[in-house]
Amino acid sequence: MSRTVLVTGGNRGIGLATARAFAERGDRVAVTHRGAVVPDYLFGVRCDVTDPEAVEVAFGEVEEKLGPVEVLVANAGITDSTLITRMTEDRFTRVLDTNLTGAWRCARRAVGPMVRNRSGRLIFISSVAATYGSAGMTNYAAGKAGLIGLARSLARELGSRQVTANVVAPGYVVTDMTADLPQQYGAAYRDAIPLRRFAEPEEVASVVEWLAGPGAGYITGAVIPVDGGMGMGH
Ligand code: NDP
Questions:
Q1: Which Pfam families match (predicted)?
Q2: Test site for ligand 1: of 6, 7, 12, 144, most ligand atoms within 8 A of the Cβ
Q3: Is the pTM of this model over 0.90?
């Protein structure tokens, strides 16, 4: 059955791979972007998730073109890393506003129609950093940990309406976000990963796509690691 899927930050990286995975199984897929060109097989809507009005407009455009959003993948995210002694409050709150509040804004807008339809899937892209911690990333890890509380609260709030809320927590994935990792750190990180390699975006996308499918209908409030074993036990 074909569904309407919205992936935030779907113009590149994990978001684009995820959008492609849904499109390949026949879903109607919209992606948010901030001015980038998106492939023809996706419906692109311009949206900065830090702007509540832009979120409202983007959902309206998707609903008009493709119908109500049945699967939301809250993927848009940024890093702005430095040690806490050097991190300004602005750098902390900017990352939280995008990664956590941005996801909450999209979820808040998505759930109304899902509740009315007694069906919906909310998937939040967190990170191994949420539970493992990451030096120099207090803003990022706090925001990503917040997504777990957000998803689990939604799982409890909306479960009786058959709306599920889950978290996917990737480890290191080969995208623009990790492209400028200095070589010596890259090697050290790889050594901490049992599978001894970084993930390809498609390896996250396939898990997200499965989580939104019928085979995962009884999963809610879960945090699914896709981290090559890096965060085991956390
Ligand atoms: P990329 O940097 O490749 O892509 C990030 C995406 O988010 C882009 O589409 C970007 O849009 C979008 N975005 C950023 N800020 C905003 C905003 N304010 N409003 C709307 N869209 C925005 O990152 P990845 O693909 O690697 O990451 C995707 C998600 O996965 C993120 O949430 C990230 O934290 C998470 N993740 C990534 C890991 C990794 O190792 N790569 C590991 C664990 C989690 P634009 O192109 O306009 O900048």
A1: adh_short_C2 (PF13561)
A2: 12
A3: yes
C-alpha span between 234 and 226 (Å, rounded): 13
- CA 74 to ligand 1 centroid distance, Å: 10
Q: Is the ipTM of this complex over 0.95?
A: yes
For the chain, the domains span: 4-226
d(CA 132, CA 123): 20
Q: Which of 203, 173, 199 minimizes the C-alpha distance to 77?
A: 173
Nearest ligand 1 atom, CA 173: 40
- CATH number belonging to domain 4-226: 3.40.50.720
- Render pLDDT for 48-70 as a digit per residue (tens, 0 to 9): 999 999 999 999 999 999 999 99
Question: Residue 17's closest CA among 201, 167, 173?
Answer: 201
